[in-house]
Amino acid sequence: MARQTRIRTKVQDGITEILVLVSHPMETGQRIDPATKEKIPAHWIQKITFSVNGKEVAVADMGVGVSKDPLLGVKVKGAKPGDKVRVTWSDNNGESGEAETTISATPA
Amino acid sequence: MTAATKRLWIVCAALAIAAGAAAAHAAPTDDLKQFREFFKNKFPTVKFDDYADGLYALPGMDDYRAQWEALNEFPPYELGLAEGKKEWQTPFKNGKTYAGCFKNGGKNTAQHYPYWSDAGNEVRTVEMDLIDCLKKNGEERAFTTADLDKDAKARVQLANLTAAFYQLSQGQRVSIDLSKPGALQAYEEGKKFWWQRRGQLNFACANCHMDLAGRNLGGNQPLSAALGHPIAWPAFRTVWGQLETIHQRYATCNSQVRAKPAKHGSKIYNHLQLYETYLSTGLPLTAPTVRN
User: Fold this and answer.
1) Of B147, B191, B272, nearest to B25 (Cα)?
2) Could you tell me the residue range of the domain that residue B151 belongs to?
3) Quick check: is B101 catalytic?
4) What is the rounded distance in angstroms from the CA atom of residue A77 to the CA atom of residue A16?
5) Residue A89 φ/ψ, nearest 5 degrees
6) Which of A29, A46, B14, B211 is 20 to 30 A removed from B282 (C-alpha atoms)?
7) pLDDT band (50, 70, 90) for residue B247
8) Residue B54 sits in a domain of what CATH number?
9) Do A88 and A64 contact (CB within 8 A), yes or no?
10) How confident is the model at residue B251 (pLDDT cuts 50, 70, 90)?
């Protein structure tokens, strides 16, 4: 199945936390397949971008040290309920994914 | 010892054995009462409904509970569950869906699983019914043919689908029908497995999940109370990083006490699941969940 990118926001004390869960193997390129004795090719998310209302608020350059199916979160000040939050990522194999949500009015 | 006293001893011994056998076949309702009473006395501060939270409801599990609550803010099983849901909703080639194989379209039915089927003369689990549904509709998936003990990918696919099924019944309270004689016999077999010591560590299920519940095995395996076990599965363990079936948990539990695990989907695990689920009667289904 295609990779999933799930997004959720949480508002607390005027600070919005953006949480992203991506289904991704995050292969380091160092592991050896026990069946074939060959190295499993590296496959990891290189860049992940968070934006609020089209304005970039955070960019992460990720490495191979991040776990499989990573969960990432950033805290943003000044985002209001109703603002559009968008997250995009791309990996070393040229795959990419994105997700969008609206900050809900009720604090979580 | 005279012949008369000797005879008396033999009669006494025979009576004791007969009494023991009768006790082993106590009615399930008595077992249930005793079982609930046991946990009530063991953990007087934990209310019955709290057992729906599994081991996180027990005293002394505060750190594990904090971790669990943090995980529940964005549960990692959502990825697997979404795949299971997609599989559940996608129509077969003949246009039918999984929902057509189940009463009420699969909604609010999982609380009666596992159940005794007179037709098949066996205990049936959700997994079995899902696989049968595929076969009936001429469909094939990796998990319909694969060896689920070895093929983790196929097993997780099945676990995801089972999780989607259980989610349709979330909150329904467990109610198992043991009225058929076959069901009762399976129940007794499950009970025997539960109380039988096994493996190099010589533990029975009951040793860890009743006597030692709320403590730690080897320092990093918190032991859950048996009450509320089956309502959480399929569950996501962080050490596994994916949803898994309850049979996979039974198998790993068995290997943790260094016993040879039974096969995934084997009769004995079905019977154990029936026994355990019956003992959790009245608790609401919470699957899928995160468990340690």
Assistant:
1) B191
2) 26-291
3) no
4) 6
5) -135, 155
6) B211
7) very high
8) 1.10.760.10
9) no
10) very high
Ramachandran assignment for B120, one of left (phi > 0), alpha (psi -120 to 50 degrees), beta (any other): alpha
Q: What are the tens digits of pLDDT across the range B22-67?
A: 445 678 889 999 999 999 999 999 999 999 998 998 888 888 999 8
Beta bridge partners of A85: A52, A101
Going along chain B, which residue ranges are E strands? 115-117, 122-124, 216-217, 221-222, 235-237, 242-244, 289-291
Contact B79 A6 (CB under 8 A): yes
For testing contact with chain A, the best of B69, B74, B238 (most A CBs within 10 A): B74
Q: What is the mean pLDDT of chain B?
A: 86
Q: Which residue of B has its CA nearest to A73?
A: B74
Say how many domains are in chain B.
1
Q: Which of residues 195-254 of B touch A (CB under 8 A)?
A: 241
Residue B18 lies in a domain: no
A42-64, pLDDT tens digit by residue? 999 999 999 998 889 999 998 88
What's the CA gap between B226 and A107, in Å, rounded? 36
With beta carbons less than 8 A apart as the criterion, state whether B275 and B191 touch. Answer: yes
Residue B67, φ and ψ in degrees, nearest 5: -60, -45
Would residue B243 count as lying in a domain? yes
Residue B6 reports pLDDT greater than 60: no
Q: How far apart are CA B145 and CA B151, in angstroms?
A: 10
Q: Do the domain assignments include residue B287?
A: yes
pLDDT for residue B15 is more than 50: no
Task: Just give the CATH number of A5-28+42-102.
Answer: 2.60.40.10
